[in-house]
């Protein structure tokens, strides 16, 4: 059994996430989100959807990007 790197739970059905040359072990998606999801640089919410990247900065959506002074950013509908 592997151990979740967030909660420490030893669980027979953990899973690995390979990202940027590192391997992370989690026992559930909520622990993976807690550790891996970027934070919106305006409202600080964890971005678990697509989000918006502008000039190397992450936002949960176009509204937050515009609130930080970024221009020309639109949400797709």
Structural account:
The protein is of the alpha+beta class and 77 residues long. The protein folds into 2 domains: 1-36, no CATH class; 37-76, no CATH class. Helices cover 18% and strands 26% of the residues. Strand 5 and strand 6 (57-59) form a beta hairpin. The radius of gyration is 16 Å and the shape is elongated. The model has no long low-confidence stretch (mean pLDDT 93).
Q: How many domains in all?
A: 2
Tell me the number of strands: 6
Q: Return residue spans where pLDDT drops below 50 for at least 5 consecutive residues.
A: none
What string gives the helices and strands in order? Answer: EEEEHEEH
Percent helix among the residues?
10-25%
Mean pLDDT: 93
Protein name: Prokaryotic metallothionein
Organism: Streptomyces dioscori
Entry keywords:
two-stranded antiparallel sheet; 2 helices; 18% helix; elongated; 6 strands; two-stranded antiparallel ribbon; alpha+beta; 77 residues
Helix/strand layout:
Elements: E1 2-3, E2 10-11, E3 15-19, E4 22-26, H1 29-36, E5 52-54, E6 57-59, H2 62-67
Antiparallel strand pairs: 1-2, 3-4, 5-6
Compose a concise summary of this entry.
The chain has helices at 29-36, 62-67; strands spanning 2-3, 10-11, 15-19, 22-26, 52-54, 57-59. The chain has 77 residues and is α+β, with helices and mostly antiparallel strands.
């Amino acid at each position: 059994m592997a151990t979740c790197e967030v909660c420490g739970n030893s669980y027979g059905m953990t899973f690995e996430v390979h990202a940027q040359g590192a391997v992370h072990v989690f026992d559930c998606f909520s622990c993976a989100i807690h550790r891996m999801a970027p934070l919106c640089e305006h409202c600080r919410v964890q971005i678990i959807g697509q989000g918006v990247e502008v000039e190397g900065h992450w936002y949960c959506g176009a509204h937050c990007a515009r609130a930080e002074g970024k221009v020309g950013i639109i949400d797709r509908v």
